[in-house]
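Standup notes, protein team

Yesterday: finished cleaning the Onychostoma macrolepis set.
Today: Ubiquitin-like protease family profile domain-containing protein structure.
Blockers: none.

Input for Ubiquitin-like protease family profile domain-containing protein:
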Amino acid sequence: MPSVPVLTPVTVKCPPFQTHLVFTHPVTLPVTQFTLHNLPITLPIVTSRSHTISQPASSLPAASSLPGASKPAASSLPGASKPAASQLTLLEDIWAGKIGGRIWSKIGPYKLFSMDLERLRPGEELESEVINAYLACLAKRYTGHAFVIDSFEMTKMWNGKACLMKRTDLKKYGLLLGSVNEAHHWTLLLIYPHQGRIVYMNSLGEGSKKLVHCCKAVRDFMDHKGFRGTTWKCLKLPHSLQTDGNSCGVFVCKFAEAILTGGNLNFPCGPDNIAVMRKDIGQRLLNESEDLSDLCLACGNEYPYTEDKLDTWIECDSCSGWYHWDCMSRPSIEAVFICPGCQGPL
């Protein structure tokens, strides 16, 4: 067997049946070298798992090789795919404020925390992160090649300002889509770059001035993306109209869904219908989340987290979710740790 680096064990006074071991080692160890059987540990092992680890970030993925502190399979972690009924219950608990703040879903670059999903409640205006993430879900399943332009960049384009998309080759895509925010009102923009077509969707209606502005804004933007000389035509499609003052983001999501899947743009949009749409959006965002097992569920970041690339993680004794120790304000490792998602808001 290869030689094993000598590790300095740390003995911690713990209550009975709650043994917490903390190891710090300066190198990444192969899985076959790092087991309980070949560590110079003098502390008796009690039938209890450890839930705090200090280790180099590069070795964290091999958590199954750490003594007494293995991450559960992704399917058992919070945020993993669950039945629709379970996701609905989770969403309703978030809306009711029964669950504390943490990340619940990741769709591409978009991370959804409790506060984002809370804005899906009836009567609330949707946040950009929810809309962007939902459009990203639709783009992944689109039969063509679609690219979501972040709402921040799309709004800048609409306002005639330079966008930070210099490294993105838009010629590779058959459809560009994104949402625009004007004075707290969301609208949808779809651009078919190789056909010179634009679809502008406003849940309050598309006036002629808006259509002219849309055509000019897209032309100016696409001229700098290799489409100079393209003749653009802005289309106006018949659709349902918003009757309240806060569901424009819901309409953006459902307009995009109908267009990308060949659905009906004239859908029922009474208060009860909008409430169902909000739940549908939330459930889909929860159900289609990427794996969260390598993220701190408090900040949503991976490792390395600290400048010295040495992270300390702590595991929730209730849900087995993992958190940066610093993000949890360094709770005592001698006590049972219950994460914000399990204990509810403080």
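Follow-up from PR in the comments: The longest strand covers residues 175-182.
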